Amino acid sequence: MTAAKPSVLVLDDDASVRRTMRRFLETYGYGAVDAVTYEDALRLLHNTPDIFAVILDIRLGGAHTGLDMLEPLRASPEFADIPVLIMTGGVVNEAEEALIARHRAHLFYKPEGFDTLLDFLDQLTGRDRLA
Questions:
Q1: Total domain count for the chain?
Q2: Is residue 48, in this structure, part of any structural domain at all?
């Protein structure tokens, strides 16, 4: 079992999504740090202790996508096995699906809701929020 309050990094360029995810995660006993850009997310990963999982939005404004995080995560021994949850509100093409699968990430669609994501995180941490 990990620390009592596992931290989750959320990368999303939409401020309302980041704010909602942070509140939702914290309400259910997770720590949350959020990033707007690919560069912010990499910096936070290396400077924030005990990040248990990463939630990435695929479509970001700017030069990078959330999927661009997969390669550096899996190439780093420190983060090679970190759970990665990919969120998108859009269509994922075959190449993106293959990239997600190759890097052992898990795909979630934003309309599924945050409960689905939270249930998955609970399974990864072995937590039972109903107990």
A1: 1
A2: yes
Between CA 111 and CA 49 the distance in angstroms is: 31
Whether residue 1 lies inside any domain: the answer is no
Within 13 Å, how many C-alpha atoms sit on residue 101's CB side?
A: 7
Q: What is the pLDDT of residues 52-68, one digit of tens each?
A: 999 999 888 778 888 99
DSSP H stretches of helix in the chain: 15-27, 38-47, 70-75, 94-102, 114-125
Q: Is residue 131 part of a domain?
A: no
- What is the pTM assigned to this prediction? 0.85
Cβ contact 105:74 at 8 Å? no
Reported as a single tens digit per residue, the pLDDT across 67-93 is 999 999 999 999 999 999 998 888 889
93: domain range?
7-125
Report d(CA 87, CA 65) in Å as an integer.
12
